[in-house]
Design goal:
The protein has twelve helices and 13 strands. Among the domains are: 1-31 and 47-57, no CATH class; 59-173 and 272-324, 2-enoyl-CoA Hydratase, Chain A, domain 1 (Alpha-Beta Complex). The protein has helices at residues 29-33, 52-57, 59-75, 94-102, 122-136, 153-159, 193-209, 214-220, 225-247, 253-260, 275-280, 293-307; strands at 7-12, 18-23, 78-84, 111-116, 142-145, 149-150, 163-166, 171-172, 178-182, 188-192, 285-287, 314-317, 322-324. By secondary structure, it is α/β, with parallel strands linked by helices. A seven-stranded mixed sheet has the order 11-7-5-4-3-12-13, with helices on both faces. Strands 1-2 form a two-stranded antiparallel ribbon. It is elongated.
């Protein structure tokens, strides 16, 4: 609702969003010209409002943001939403969206981040969680709400939270980095960093035990030392990132990071890590059953946000900001 007596917020879409603020004490130039002329009565003030068509065209956004504000009142926390299409990955272009969402968040306010992502760039994920932690402060509270899935780099983001809100539909994933490289024919091939390193170590061990083994010798010739070193650096980067986030809240960082990078336990990069397993390995999980009233609101908001983007888009939305990339 608009309170004309105090402040009018008009939201316009222009490369995302902006907020224009007017108060009823702003001076009207025409009224200024008439000052001192008592014979000309001042016209009554009339605050501008959204037109019916403008409102209708943005009705779904208004509904989502009303739901966000309802959740903020219910939880007494600021709610930010980052929801991706199935192929839209965490990347450097996400920074602007997070800065916009944090623009109206006061320093130290507790934050909930509604997160849905297939994963993406580790370096970008680190910057996003750094922005959130800087906003809540060292003693502030950051929760990540996972309605559906937060995989790979998304899981890394959750490790920086004080707690993770999950339900039966929620899932995290292994933090096994995936890298795309071209093969000898110029085709793009996605490699599991950990599986590549594990395969190299296995064949190297076999060759040490059996130097004349032709199969191991042939397989070892297929490994590129430059690629191997690059993959080892990426693996170490992911582990360090995870451990540094977990150290902040005194968790058993080494054990949890090792569990999330265990390719024997999680041979598939897309394998589900549900709330029970996440809690068992030491993550601070707040479980809400599907029947919980607050969870139903989170799920409704997620559904509305997911339908607002195509498979290759991401939406950043708070009570004030709304940006689709």
């Amino acid at each position: 609702m608009i309170d004309d007596a105090i402040t009018l917020f008009v939201q316009e879409e222009f490369f995302g969003w902006r907020i224009l603020m007017m108060t009823d004490d702003q001076e009207d130039p025409k009224q200024s010209e008439n000052q001192g002329d008592a014979s000309k009565p001042e016209p009554p003030k009339r605050s501008p409002s959204k037109t019916p068509m403008y409102t209708a065209m943005r009705a779904l956004r208004y509904h989502r943001q009303m739901l966000i504000r309802d959740l903020e009142v219910k939880t007494n926390r600021k709610l930010l939403s980052y929801v991706s299409g199935i192929t839209a990955q965490v990347g450097r272009d996400d920074i602007a969206g997070f800065v916009d969402m944090l623009f109206n968040v006061n320093q130290g306010e507790p934050i909930d981040l509604l997160l849905h992502t297939p994963g993406g760039d580790i370096d970008a994920a680190e910057k996003l969680i750094t922005l959130l932690r800087a906003s809540v402060g060292e003693v502030g509270s950051l929760r990540v709400v996972v309605p559906d899935f937060a995989k790979s780099a998304g899981t890394l983001i959750t490790l920086g939270a004080n707690s993770i809100v999950m339900s039966d539909s929620s899932e995290l994933g292994p933090i096994d980095p995936q890298i795309w490289l071209k093969d000898g024919s110029g085709n793009d091939i996605c490699h599991s960093v950990l599986n590549y390193i594990d395969a190299f170590n296995e064949h190297a061990r076999q060759l040490r035990d059996h130097p004349d083994d032709p199969v191991s010798r042939m397989m070892m010739e297929k490994f590129d030392p430059t690629v191997l070193r690059k993959f080892e650096n990426v693996r170490n980067r992911a582990r360090t990132f995870a451990e540094n986030q977990l150290k902040r809240r005194g968790a058993n960082f080494s054990f949890i990071a090792s569990e999330l990078m265990d390719t024997n336990k999680y041979p598939s990069h897309g394998q589900m890590i549900g709330w029970e397993v996440a809690r068992d390995i030491g993550l601070n999980v707040e479980y809400l059953p599907p029947s919980d009233a607050t969870w139903k609101l989170y799920w409704e908001l997620y559904c509305l946000l997911r339908l607002a983007v195509t498979d290759d888009q991401k939406i950043f939305e708070s009570g004030y900001a709304s940006l689709v990339i």
